Amino acid sequence: MREPKNGTQHWHQRAQQMRLMAQHTADPDVQAQMMQIVEAYEAVAEKSNGSLMRFDARWRVDYLGKKGSHLGTVEAASEREAIAEAAKEFNIPPARQNKLAVTKIDGDQPKNGARPRRR
To answer: Is the pTM of this model over 0.90?
Structure first.
């Protein structure tokens, strides 16, 4: 999972990049459209007001009962959120949630430092 970015800073940087590209564009119509995008990025930056942007990872969900089974995948920012999302999505009652196992399938390396196997 990518680290959250400061929302305001991120969108101001995007606006600045677009502004620089617009300055080097010869077509005035394209340049005007690019400047509209700059204004939109600046508006988003103002609305984000420094809030953190959240990037979710995908998690594989397995149920570890007598006959373990793969339930599917969920998207969440953390392991705890993935378990909560899986319980909700797959209708797992609270008494059975301790039997859920979630494994991050994309994003950063696992917390314990183990590397995923490559095929």
So the answer is: no
Question: For 100-112, what is each residue's pLDDT tens digit?
Answer: 999 998 654 444 4
Other C-beta atoms lying within 10 Å of the C-beta of residue 72: 11
- Among left, alpha and beta (phi > 0; psi -120 to 50; other), residue 13 is alpha
Contact between 9 and 53 under an 8 Å Cβ cutoff? The reply is no
Q: Which CATH number is 71's domain given?
A: 3.10.20
Residue 52, SS3? strand
Residue 11: count other Cβ atoms within 10 Å of its Cβ: 21
Question: What's the chain's Rg over C-alpha atoms?
Answer: 21
Per the structure, the complete domain to which residue 62 belongs is given by: 57-104
Total domains, the chain: 2
Q: What ranges make up the beta strands (E) of the chain?
A: 57-63, 69-76, 100-104
